[in-house]
Amino acid sequence: MYVARSIALALALLTSQAACVINPPAQSFGYAPSVPSGVVVERLSSADLAAILKSEGYGSVTVQKDGNVSFKANGVLCVLYRYDDGDLQLYFGITGITVDPRTINEWNRTRRLSRAYLDADQDPILEADLLADTGLSRETVSSFVKVFVQSVSHFQTYLLENGEAQPASADDAPTAQSL
């Protein structure tokens, strides 16, 4: 009985130590979403969203006063908006560039998973939505952000290589709104 108990205890200790090595706790990175991996919830707090972004390696993650979360991906600022119903929206904008509306229409006609438009100042904007109707998890939010960051990169390249996108003046260089 003593040998069996000792073996069981040794296996339990080895298993828990191996789990910590293979899957270190999020606390070891200084931020831990309150929603465990694989758990689906109706909505996520700003702190949870910030922790998810940090755990994915995004920089300058900041919870704004209004509860939205800004972060940098590949050197450009994006904003993750939270809505009362739990839905999420990602936003990216560029200033200092003139874009023909046909260029934006072509983007929308030929791309999926994001939409572009010209704002009131005629700056190109890219957005995407994640509906919370079926719930949110760390994994769905991470995937949503990764796809959007890829779209932002493609959008920047599209605008600069399209031929219709021109700096507003000779002194203006296209820049992401946050830089």
Summarize this entry quickly.
With 179 residues, the protein is of the alpha+beta class. It contains four helices and nine strands; from the N terminus they run ααβββββαββαββ. Strands 1, 2, 3, 4, 6, 7 and 9 form a seven-stranded antiparallel beta sheet that branches. A two-stranded antiparallel ribbon has the order 5-8.
Describe the 3D structure.
The chain has 179 residues and is α+β, with helices and mostly antiparallel strands. It has a single domain, classed as Yope Regulator, Chain: A. The chain contains 4 helices and 9 strands. A hairpin with a 5-residue loop joins strand 6 (115-118) and strand 7 (124-130). It starts with a helix and ends with a strand. Residues 1-31 and 165-175 have low confidence and may be disordered.
